[in-house]
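I need you to check the entry underneath: sequence plus fold tokens. Let me know what the token row says about the fold.

>
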Amino acid sequence: MRDYWVIQPWFLYTRKDSLSKMNTILVREFNGTISSGIQCFKTLKHLVPVRDGYENIIYIIGTSSVVYKMEDEKTGKLYAVKIFVDGIDRAEKYGIIKDELQCLDCPYLLPIQYFEDEFLIEDESSVSSFGSKIVSYPVILMEWIEGVPIATFLQEAVDNFFMLEMIAYRFGQFVAWITLQPFSHGNIKANNIIVREDGSFVLIDYDCFYAPDMEKAGKECNKKSSDDFSLLAILISLKAISICPGLILENKCKDYILFEEKDFRDILNTKLVKILFPSLSKELNQLLGALFVLNSGIDLCQLPILALQLRKPLHEMTYSYDMETDDDVDFDNAWIDDCSDNQRVYYSADKSRLLMGSCERLTNYSVKEGTKIICNMAFYRYGNGRNLKNLQLPTSVICIGEEAFRECRNLTSVKIPDGVYKISAFAFRDCNKLESITLPTKLKRIEEYTFSRCKSLNFIRIPNGVTSIGAYAFESCGNLETIELPDTIICIGENAFEDCYSIKEIRIPKGSMIKFALLLPELITFFVES
């Protein structure tokens, strides 16, 4: 068996050690039978396994089942075929679930078909003179969803505020809808939310589904309200991330994105809730208020629908500029700015992107007006910015790429234009003589290591609107004495100010002491409310 199974596109990679509760020998037999082309289905004979680029069948394993990506040979339609191996009788339960789902016309849940004794395989352990015993397993058939888990979606959309706001808005619409239904999913977690390419999403895994008919049939099942906390926890997480994308970068995605099961025991006293409330966002406060009410014992369905719905984003604002400058970029066709002493700076043909400076002797440089992107490693590659002392950036610049000015060791000051919305990781790392930097008002996030080891930096004012500071962002800024933080900060990554041993004062807004004490407990003695 391979160490990893490539699952495209729902479940990116599943490690072999997740098989701890599965009969690995049985799964190996399943794979061999399905891969060999032997007819092993009683009814679903028209389905064939889909293979990856290495001709391996695509599948995912769980604690009680294995799911295969299958294709209808005639129509080309893709299906997920889930084979249960734990021997539990699910026929009546899934009959009820099937009936409930097939009556729905909604984008969030998919109809299913349940087949008892559908997957047939020889039991190699029971071979006798009469032949091998045929063992059957139940199967669920549903549409294969082309998409990614919501955690992957959030990480990929971290710079797209519109998509982050839209997924929060859509989930709010879903919460308002499902609280009015007589059924519940029963196991709403991040891994069970698959986001399609267009940003819509669907729920998978209906093993814990609740329908009223289950109680009538005397079946053990969840309650209608079993999803209440998970629904609201995920909605709060999505809204918070739409305000502060750094939350998904600085926190490992949990079962409920920013929350986990143990948080539900005393959710009002979790660190995240204390940091978020009160929020500058009226909608986030509204959701947190709903959480407080839910915590008092009231069911979600008893709350006003408007308390769970978010405002729809008005328009899309995205930037899709290319900040990559790989070694194979065709610099021969680039526009070249010839400077003194045979020094050159390369731009894209349309002059919108500064690709690279070949200018190790250059001490002063003004980036050309009209430039929008300072590309990755622009003045770091080959040490080309090592002697740069003075830098002028035009108002047209909106993005500064990773390591763009890293190790520009003689750079003393930089004023970043207000139009810049993104300064990438490591952008000014090891700028040893950088004494002052003016950050733009459009900036929302300071990336990891952005200003680390800027040893001459004495003062930094984080502009209002910045919501997160990445890990090690100002690490080893040994001369840093004064820091000003705005009330908009929600997330500060690990060791953001590590080895800043000259700190004398951290100015924070009045009334924010509790929040910043949670964010920077090791620096609380330096806090000054102003």
Observations:
- The chain has four domains: 4-143, 148-307, 319-428, 444-530.
